[in-house]
């Protein structure tokens, strides 16, 4: 199995600001996709919809200010059964996000696309926390005909 890995520093007063952006339906809609709904509590399911499809994430672990973990239960075949993990830690004035989209069966071309898109959305998350404004779908950077 293979994983998508990213590390991003977000200038913020505390890790709680980043954690809130990962655990609030309204804030998720402000940096990932405007069409976000569901239950962001442990055991809940969050539905993310894009022009090209969507994903359903089951919230499996929440550790305030430290970790958010989702299991993909709906979406493209390549995503089903994978996990999205956000580990947070403080370094000076920054909250460091150690991001993993883990458990891909193989590094197919779609995984390359998703890695780049995750990077653009992580920058959107950073902008949301630092400036109050992100670039969620459909206002995100398009990188190809997939999105």
Q: Report the major sheet.
A: 7 strands, antiparallel
- Quaternary assembly: single chain
Low-confidence stretches: none
CATH architecture: 2-Layer Sandwich
CATH fold assignment: Alpha-D-Glucose-1,6-Bisphosphate, Chain A, domain 4
What's the number of extended β-strand segments? 7
Q: Count the domains.
A: 1
Strand percentage lies at 35-45%
Order of the strands making up the biggest sheet: 1-7-6-5-4-3-2
What does this structure look like?
- The protein is of the alpha+beta class.
- The mean pLDDT is 96.
- It has a seven-stranded antiparallel sheet, covered by helices on one side.
- It has one domain (2-131): Alpha-D-Glucose-1,6-Bisphosphate, Chain A, domain 4, CATH 3.30.530.
- The chain has helices at 15-23, 25-31, 109-131; strands at residues 2-11, 35-38, 45-50, 53-63, 67-74, 83-91, 94-104.
- It has three helices and seven strands; from the N terminus they run βααββββββα.
- 27% of the residues lie in helices and 40% in strands.
- Helix 1 packs across helix 2 and helix 2 crosses helix 3.
- The radius of gyration is 14 Å and the shape is globular.
- A hairpin with an 8-residue loop joins strand 5 and strand 6 (83-91).
